[in-house]
UniProtKB/TrEMBL annotation:
Coiled-coil intervals: 61-120
UniProt name for this protein: Helix-hairpin-helix DNA-binding motif class 1 domain-containing protein
Record Pfam families: HHH_5
SUPFAM superfamilies for the chain: Rad51 N-terminal domain-like, Tropomyosin
GO molecular function: nucleotide binding
Natural source organism: marine metagenome
UniProt keyword list: Coiled coil
Amino acid sequence: MSPDLEEKIAQLENSLGQEQQRLEKLWDAYEQQEKDFNASLDRINYLESDIETRQTMIASLQELLTERDTKLRDLEIARQRQGKIEAKYEPRIKEMQGIIDDQTEKYQRLLSITQEMEDELDLARKSLHARDGWFNANISSLESVSEIIKEWRNIQGGKFPEVKEASGPGGGKSDFISSIAKIKGLGAVKAENLYDAGFHTVDNLKNASTEEIASVVGFTNLSASKVVKGAKEL
């Protein structure tokens, strides 16, 4: 083989090698572009999905806002109606409150009158008790007729004979009456009835039940509860 031919073959082989290298670089570049293109497609798909999600969220928020606005309008309408109802019935409410206050005052006056009537009833009972005692002690005897008649007239006039004061576990009757004199609505007559019924100290009243006090002559459940409450406040 001649030297010229060998040189040409070498040149061709060299050119072929360079062309092959160029083609390999082009192929690598093509593959990289393919990868970049696929990555761009994936990114585009992700963004489209994200856009759809955001649009769904926006639609949901718009629905919530519309629902909220509807509720606010309904509340405003209800508030206006409530205001009209209040304006309509406020005079009636004030009128009814005035009636209640008036009835309360009447009830308090009636309660006070009832208390006074109870005291008068107690006085009448004591008078009757004194008269019965006088009959039991004197009707069988005709001695000292003038003195008996005088004493009877005194009883009829409200002047009762002095009764010897008994002394209970807590002291004398006068001490007991003075110790509970501050209880509102409790007069001397009722205090004596309590003493005669076995209540000789303030502690006896504090520890007593309403029913026990109410069983004493001259007391009702209402007045008995007042006595128990008053005794606890002493």
